[in-house]
Design goal:
It is a single chain. The strands form three sheets. The protein has a six-stranded parallel β-sheet with strand order 1-11-10-9-12-13, sandwiched between helices. A five-stranded parallel β-sheet has the order 6-5-4-7-8, sandwiched between helices. It has a three-stranded antiparallel β-sheet with strand order 2-3-14. It folds into three domains: 3-22 and 230-372, Nitrogenase molybdenum iron protein domain (Rossmann fold), CATH 3.40.50; 43-225, Nitrogenase molybdenum iron protein domain (Rossmann fold); 392-423, no CATH class. The protein is globular, with a radius of gyration of 25 Å. It has 425 residues and is α/β, with parallel strands linked by helices. The chain has helices at residues 10-21, 26-42, 44-55, 66-73, 78-95, 134-147, 165-174, 184-193, 210-219, 244-255, 270-283, 290-300, 309-319, 331-335, 352-357, 393-409, 413-423; strands at residues 3-6, 103-107, 110-118, 121-125, 151-155, 178-180, 203-205, 224-225, 233-238, 262-267, 302-305, 323-327, 343-346, 383-391. α5 packs parallel to α7 (165-174). It contains 17 helices and 14 strands.
C-alpha cells in the first residue's frame, strides 16, 4: 500500500509530492470566480440562491439567533463539554505569551515607534461536510480573541438537521460573536466584500474544501487570509528502535483526512519500513474511514529508506512538511537540525492528533512545502503594525540637506522640494 523508495530515489518522491501540490482543475477556478462575482454583484440575493443550489436550504435569516445557539450548546454531552473546555484552556495558555506590544524610541527632537493594532473584524470558516470540527473553531477563534479582535464571525454551511452542537459550543467557549449559516466559496466572498446583512471583514481564516481554498486565494488582496491550505500531510522520521504499530497508526491518522493527504515515513531501518506496512494492513480493517485511508496511502503514501538520520532530516527539510514526528531515540538532539516544518512532535508519546486537539500549539499549519517560509496561525496573525515618526523643527533642519540629497540622487525632485520648502529661511 505504501510505495518504498531508496535514498537514491528521493527525487522521485519529491516529484510525486510536487504533482500533488499542483493538482487544481481550471474548471474549479472558473466556477469559484463566477460565484465570487455573483455575490459581489447581488449580495444577499446571491447568497440565498447559492445556498439553495448547493445546500438545498432556503434561508430567511443567515444568522443563528442567541436562543438557537443556547439550545444547540445544551445538547453537547457534559463529558465532551469538559474536553472542549480543557482543550480551549490549553490553547489559550499557549497563545497568551504571543501577545505583542509596541515600542517607542526618543532621542532629542526625534520620536519614533511602532503600534500593534488588533484587526477589527475577522471571519472564521468552519466546514460542514461529513465531519464536524470544533477543534478548528478553538484553534482559529482563540488566538484572534487573545490578539484583541473585537468581532469574530463564524460562517458554516447550513444543514437540514442544524449546525453540529459541538461546533456551536466550541464557538461559545472561544468567544465567537456571531454565527452565520452560509458556506462554500459564497461565504468567503460575502466576508470579503460584505452584503446587505453581512459586514465585510479584515481577514478570513479557517479550513475548507478546494472551492473554499480557491475563493480565499482569489480574494486575497480584497481581504487578508491565513494561508492557502492544501490537503493534510505528516512526515515521520524513525530509527530502528521506533514502534511500528505507533507509526502505522500515525500515518493513517493523517491519511483519513482526504484521498489527497500525504503520509510519509523516512527511516534508517529497512526492516522497520516493512513492519510498518504490515501493521497498516492489520490496523486499517477496524477503521471507519478505511476507504479514504486506503486511497490516500495508495496515491501518496510513501516510505523512504535513508542512509542516516542526518540525511532523513535533510530530506525532510526539503519537503517542509505540515506535521513532522521525530520517532527516534533522542528526538531533542534532532530538533535543532529541523528548519522547515509546521509543527514538530517529539517522541513516542506525542502523536500528531495530540496537537490537532488538545496540547495547545495551533493546528492551522502551512502545507504543500510552504513551511519553508510560512508559520502556524498565531496571535500575530490577527494584528497589524503601524510605525510613527515625529521630528522637531530644529532636528529636521539639522538633517534636511541629507534627505534632500538622497531624493535628488533618486531623481525625485518633488520629494526633494518637500524638504527644500521647509529649509528656506
Amino acid at each position: 500500500m505504501l510505495k518504498i523508495y531508496k535514498q537514491s530515489e528521493t527525487d522521485l518522491l519529491l516529484d510525486r509530492l510536487q504533482a500533488r501540490a499542483e493538482s487544481i482543475s481550471p474548471q474549479i477556478v472558473r466556477s469559484v470566480a463566477e460565484i465570487i462575482e455573483d455575490v459581489k454583484t447581488r449580495g444577499d440575493a446571491a447568497l440565498r440562491d447559492l445556498t439553495e443550489r448547493f445546500d438545498g436550504i432556503r434561508c430567511d435569516s443567515f444568522y443563528l439567533s442567541p436562543r438557537e445557539r443556547e439550545s444547540l450548546s445544551e445538547k453537547v454531552p457534559p463529558a465532551l463539554r469538559k474536553i472542549i473546555d480543557t482543550a480551549a484552556a490549553n490553547i489559550r495558555a499557549f497563545h497568551e505569551p504571543q501577545r505583542q506590544s509596541g515600542y517607542i524610541m526618543s532621542n532629542g527632537g526625534r520620536v519614533m515607534g511602532q503600534r500593534v493594532i488588533p484587526l477589527r473584524r475577522v471571519g472564521l470558516y468552519v466546514p460542514g461536510g461529513t465531519a464536524a470540527y470544533p477543534s478548528s473553531v478553538l484553534m482559529n477563534a482563540i488566538p484572534a480573541k487573545v490578539a484583541g479582535v473585537s468581532n469574530v464571525v463564524m460562517v458554516t454551511p447550513p444543514k437540514p438537521e442544524g449546525i453540529n452542537p459541538a461546533v456551536v459550543y466550541a464557538a461559545d467557549v472561544a468567544g465567537v460573536d456571531e454565527i452565520i449559516t452560509v458556506g462554500g466559496a459564497q461565504a468567503v466572498a460575502a466576508l470579503a466584500y460584505g452584503t446587505e446583512s453581512i459586514p465585510r471583514v479584515d481577514k478570513v481564516v479557517g479550513p475548507g474544501n478546494i472551492y473554499v481554498a480557491m475563493a480565499k486565494k482569489l480574494l486575497y488582496g480584497t481581504v487578508d487570509i491565513d494561508m492557502i491550505a492544501g490537503p493534510s500531510e505528516v512526515l515521520i522520521i524513525a530509527d530502528e528502535e521506533a514502534n511500528p504499530s505507533y507509526i502505522a497508526a500515525d500515518l493513517m491518522s493523517q491519511a483519513e483526512h482526504d484521498p489527497l493527504a500525504a503520509a510519509i515515513l523516512i527511516t534508517t531501518s529497512p526492516e522497520l519500513a516493512h513492519r510498518v506496512c504490515e501493521e497498516i494492513k492489520g490496523q486499517i480493517k477496524s477503521l471507519s474511514r478505511r476507504d479514504i485511508i486506503r486511497k490516500s496511502l495508495e496515491t501518496y503514501g510513501s516510505v523512504l529508506v535513508a542512509d542516516s538520520l542526518e540525511e532523513a532530516v535533510r530530506i525532510s527539510n526539503i519537503i517542509a512538511p505540515e506535521h513532522l514526528e521525530l520517532a527516534v531515540r533522542a528526538p531533542f538532539d534532532l530538533l535543532g537540525e529541523v528548519r522547515n516544518a509546521g509543527s514538530i512532535f517529539l517522541g513516542d508519546y506525542t502523536p500528531e492528533p495530540l496537537g490537532d486537539y488538545f496540547a495547545g500549539p495551533n493546528h492551522v499549519l502551512p502545507t504543500n512545502g510552504t513551511a519553508r517560509f510560512a508559520s502556524p496561525l498565531s496571535v500575530e496573525s490577527f494584528v497589524k503594525k503601524s510605525s510613527y515618526i515625529y521630528y522637531s523643527k530644529e532636528t529636521f533642519e539639522a538633517i534636511g540637506a541629507e534627505v534632500e540629497g538622497f531624493a535628488n540622487a533618486e531623481g525625485l525632485s518633488a520629494h526633494a522640494n518637500s524638504v527644500t520648502v521647509r529649509l528656506k529661511k
